[in-house]
Design goal:
Layout lengths: L1 H11 L5 E4 L9 H4 L5 E4 L6 H9 L6 E3 L3 E6 L2 E6 L14 E4 L14 E3 L12 H9 L12
Parallel strand pairs: 1-2, 2-3, 5-6, 6-7
Antiparallel strand pairs: 4-5
């Protein structure tokens, strides 16, 4: 399983690519995986990332990993995205077409076609990282509707 996931990662991610990883990287020692993976990783901690917190403290992989806060707001190709390990019903500027990507749930939450949000965990994507173009294609099929007072 570990070899398959590393191979799938490297088949998708080039050496200079940017990856946003939304937590639960490894139960074991992440060093052996970080050494094998392509790309520059921007990392949001998940609830099973005790060893990744050790890696952060040791500063061993800072050339490859940038540590993000638990809730990060980024922009990719002009698209604003809120990143978090956990799913949210609403997020900053969700009513202004800001997307929300999360992990944690392993595909167990139903996808809401009226929310610009979904699970990008590899177990939902045939154990491959999801590209920005795949995220954009999925979001293009959604029709956002407000869940709270915004946009009403």
């Amino acid at each position: 399983m570990d070899d398959t996931q590393c191979n799938n990662w490297n088949a998708t991610v080039g050496p200079e690519d940017t990856v946003y990883h939304l937590g639960d990287f490894s139960f074991g020692l992440p060093d052996k995986y970080l050494a094998r993976l392509n790309g520059r990783i921007f990392f949001v901690f998940g609830n099973h990332d005790r060893e990744m917190k050790r890696v952060k403290q040791e500063k061993k992989w800072n050339h490859k990993v940038t540590w993000l806060p638990d809730l990060a707001e980024v922009e990719v190709e002009g698209q604003k995205i809120v990143l978090c390990h956990y799913a949210m019903l609403v997020w900053n500027k969700s009513h202004h077409n800001t997307w929300h990507l999360y992990g944690h749930s392993h595909g167990s939450l139903p996808d809401n076609p009226q929310s610009n949000s979904f699970d990008v965990g590899v177990d939902c994507w045939n154990y491959y990282p999801v590209s920005f173009s795949e995220v954009a294609a999925k979001m293009a099929k959604k029709s956002w509707k407000p869940l709270d007072h915004h946009g009403a």
